[in-house]
């Protein structure tokens, strides 16, 4: 059995169906774990860079899973074919804007309406903003800490009527807001402290616009702390 860090184990809880596509798979650890733990039957591991693609090939060979994990070199969702009935897409370990870009550019590859499990390091709001445009609703979220880093997971499922989100929900997460845990408070207190530090170095005359933006951000954060 492959050992997996807690971050990707948390992601793996949300995998559904028989075909996982893990985009930006690096060493293909998540697909290997998912198959070995019967969370799915088959997987596609997509990678855009040759080094991590070859690392995926090596790990899959070591675990003798070449028959059920297909490793593909290519950009984002372009590695998926229309005939692939993907049931879950995972995109993990990247910033929110890059995950949103991959989804937006490859949206026509989501024809099977797979569940999306997206684990971002920063700026998850970019993902939340995009999801309703793709017909997806956020059905679950998690925030947690591992080795001093705070991570978020967004789970989204296709919906005929994806609702709209308030500015607050887009920034902080509609599900995370309902059940604020210690990591939620830690993350946003840290963001607020960083903004206050930037603010103290700005000059009211020279940086009026930036100061307005920062004050707006701080007010939004104050509302949830
Ligand atoms: C930081 S690693 C994360 C690996 C793994 N998903 C995890 O969470 O541990 C990000 C990986 O995504 C890959 N990547 C970045 N942009 C990509 C894209 N547009 N399409 C496919 N893979 C991409 C990178 O090459 C890198 O291997």
Automatic annotation (TrEMBL):
Pfam families from the UniProt entry: TrmK (PF04816)
Gene Ontology biological process: methylation
Keywords for this protein: Methyltransferase, Transferase
GO MF, one annotated term: methyltransferase activity
InterPro entries linked to this entry: SAM-dependent_MTases_sf (IPR029063), TrmK (IPR006901)
Name recorded for this polypeptide: tRNA methyltransferase
């Amino acid at each position: 059995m492959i050992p997996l860090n807690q971050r990707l184990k948390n992601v793996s809880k949300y995998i559904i169906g028989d075909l996982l596509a893990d985009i930006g798979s690096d060493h293909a650890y998540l697909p290997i774990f998912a198959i070995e733990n019967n969370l799915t039957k088959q997987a596609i591991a997509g990678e855009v860079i040759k080094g991590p693609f070859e690392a995926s090939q090596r790990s899959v060979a070591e675990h003798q899973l070449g028959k059920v994990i297909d490793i593909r070199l290519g950009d984002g969702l372009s590695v998926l074919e229309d005939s692939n009935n993907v049931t879950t897409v995972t995109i993990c370990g990247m910033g929110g804007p890059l995950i949103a870009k991959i989804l937006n550019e490859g949206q026509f590859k989501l024809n099977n309406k797979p569940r999306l499990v997206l684990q971002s390091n920063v700026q998850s709001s970019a993902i939340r903003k995009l999801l309703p445009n793709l017909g997806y609703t956020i059905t679950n979220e998690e925030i947690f800490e591992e080795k001093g880093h705070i991570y978020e997971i967004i789970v989204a499922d296709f919906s005929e009527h994806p609702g709209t989100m308030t500015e607050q929900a887009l920034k902080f997460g509609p599900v995370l807001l309902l059940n604020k845990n210690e990591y939620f408070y830690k993350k946003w207190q840290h963001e607020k402290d960083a903004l206050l530090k930037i603010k103290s170095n700005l000059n009211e005359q020279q940086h009026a616009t930036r100061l307005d933006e920062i004050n707006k951000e701080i007010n939004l954060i104050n509302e949830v702390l």
